[in-house]
Amino acid sequence: MDPLDIVMHGDRIEPHFQAIFSADSHEILGYEVLGKLQDRGQLVSLGSFFHDLSVPDDFKIEIDLQIQRLAIDYYLEQQMDQHLFLNVGANYFAADTDDRLLNQLLEYQEKGLDLSKIVIEIMGHEASNNTDSLSHTLKYLQTFGVKVVIDELGTGISNVEEIMLLEPDILKVDLEALQSESTSTNFNGMIHYLSMLAHKLGAELLFNGITSNYQFHYAWRHNGRYYQGDLLSEVSPVFLEKGMLKDRFRHDIQQFIEIERNKVQAKFKLTHRLNEQVSDNWKEIKKNKPLDEQIDSLAKTMGDIFFRMYVTDEDGFQQTVNVVHEKTDWSWDTSAKGKNWSWRPYFIENVIRMKQEQIGILSDLYNDIDTGERIRTFSYPLDEHYYLFMDISPMYLDANEDLLW
Ligand code: CA
Question: Which of these, 192, 160, 187, lies nearest to 176 by C-alpha position?
Fold first, then answer.
């Protein structure tokens, strides 16, 4: 539809709502407000109008003000106490020189609207050219209890500094691009990073675009507190019963818990087995030869589990060559000997743990710097000076699916 047509026919706009569910109560926490237009007996979504960069912000603000009025009127009329998520373009406040958006909300507050139930979803923050004034307005709104969401994360490049400046309460991540387990490790990496960022900011994660069980499970596994998508509830012209999915949430999350538990148990089992194996085999190795040779002998007792093995001291200085296992070949790579690995994530912490508890540690999955493949590392305290590091081969992980979790 022509943008001008839409602006001309503001009277044909209807507010619609998509429920957002909460992981802790299993109930509807609130609704995102979405605009639709009656056009020759058909309801047309206004999504493309709002995402069209050639449409002036003034047009969009006009339409959004209208959608917000209709939605809030209906919200008040229904005496709702859940949250209402309103979409606001990142450039709106700068373009809205008369502060119409702000004033409209304040007028509704006088009519009895509890502003702490209003959540502002900031769209297109990456295209915003006025982050300072945006952040200023949002902070003002936050003093009334209004919450702030950064919308549309996961679809493009986001500027961390900008996100931090806006001090959001919620990060909203789109899972539409996530179709199956084969989705690139880049996507997983980005979600992992957004999850850490949320944690640092003290913000919650809202996952949107949930259309499959796989995405629902993924959202739960990645610490999503709030969920939205057609799988759970489609866009609707009316508000729904708050507890409509309680049974489903209970059932599905119970399954997620079972799966998680099995995977974590498999990890514990492997850690335990590796501890025993390494400890038993290490005892058998004669210590009257150079450390390189001792490690070489140990490596050969470990079969196909590892592709790289070496020893460091507690400061992270590598004391041996890398013993490398490729197919049926064992070889020594001397280039890493003497290098320092103390800068690696968790290195110091893990060494202290090994020293204290006298037990080996299995790392989380990560991407190997050299091969780019997903691996895990098992580390083990050989004695009070030497720590063994063994990179588990991707083939072994593939054969033990639980470990690829
Ligand atoms: Ca939105």
Answer: 187
